[in-house]
Write a structure and sequence with these properties.
Largest sheet: 6 strands, mixed
Order of helices and strands: EEHEEEEEEHHEHEEHEHE
Shape: globular
Structural class: alpha+beta
Number of strands: 13
Distance between the termini: 24 Å
Strand content: 15-25%
């Protein structure tokens, strides 16, 4: 259900899968995405299941309205909707220095990226798919975290499960467009067609930003039945990456 990862002393981090929840097909069963058509009560139960499994306080998880951009929010609690709106602000990265406040990023082929500086006590999470990688959402998060005391050489990064370069087929023109700004993302599928390697692109961006401690979950979402994959299944749920400062 949840797999914990190491981002340093005093840091909690984990990636979920799709097992052990309350959702019915095609969202079965631990869907954490609230905007994919699943029953809202099932999603609420699933989020509570994960909070309990990770030892997080109820209602102390920050969820983003992910829009494939490069905006970064600073959270001291759950993100409030902009004036006159009901949804959280549209951002794809968030950071916090608040102990016990978990940051969550939802994915089903895009990369969930978790960052932490255990010394400065600042953590961040980013949603980096094809558009976000091209726009530089992860480097933007690094910059924002440094404005809150982080040091690139101290940062630890973890790139979660993502569709791999061998599976992520795209039109040749789109590959050229992305690789023009992130050359390391250029790839070819196992069938020899144009593709993108989002994981490699993000790792290159992190290195360019001065981050050396880069870990990764090697699983491909399309090839792993225990993970949600939009490209594989179409109508489906979302798994999540979580990161938080332990009190």
């Amino acid at each position: 259900m949840v797999g914990r990862v190491d981002l340093g002393e005093g840091i909690g981090a984990a990636f979920t899968d799709r097992e052990g929840g309350a959702s019915s097909a095609p969202y079965d069963s631990l869907n954490l995405g609230g905007a994919v058509g699943d029953d809202a009560e099932a999603v609420r139960k699933n989020r509570a299941i994960v909070e309990e499994a990770l030892g997080l306080a109820a209602g102390r998880t920050v969820w983003m309205r992910q829009v494939h951009g490069a905006e970064v929010a600073v959270a001291t609690g759950p993100l409030p909707p902009p004036s006159g709106e009901t949804d959280p602000p549209g951002v794809d990265a968030v950071l916090t220095t608040e102990p016990g406040l978990a940051l969550a990023v939802l994915v089903a082929d895009c990369a969930p990226v978790l960052l932490a500086d255990p010394v400065a006590r600042v953590v961040g999470a980013a949603h980096s798919g094809r558009p976000g990688t091209a726009l530089g959402v992860v480097p933007a998060l690094v910059t924002a975290m440094c404005e809150h005391g982080a040091v690139p050489s101290r940062l630890r990064a973890m790139i979660g499960p993502v569709v791999c370069g061998g599976c992520y087929e795209v039109p040749a023109g789109l590959r050229d467009e992305v690789s023009a700004v992130v050359p390391e993302a250029r790839a070819t599928t196992r069938e020899g067609t144009p593709a993108l390697d989002i994981r490699a692109g993000i790792a290159a961006q992190l290195r360019a930003a001065g981050v050396a401690a880069i870990g990764g979950d090697p699983r491909c979402t399309m090839e792993t039945p225990a993970l949600y994959s939009y490209r594989r299944d179409g109508r489906t749920g979302r798994f999540a990456g979580y990161v938080w400062l332990k009190p």
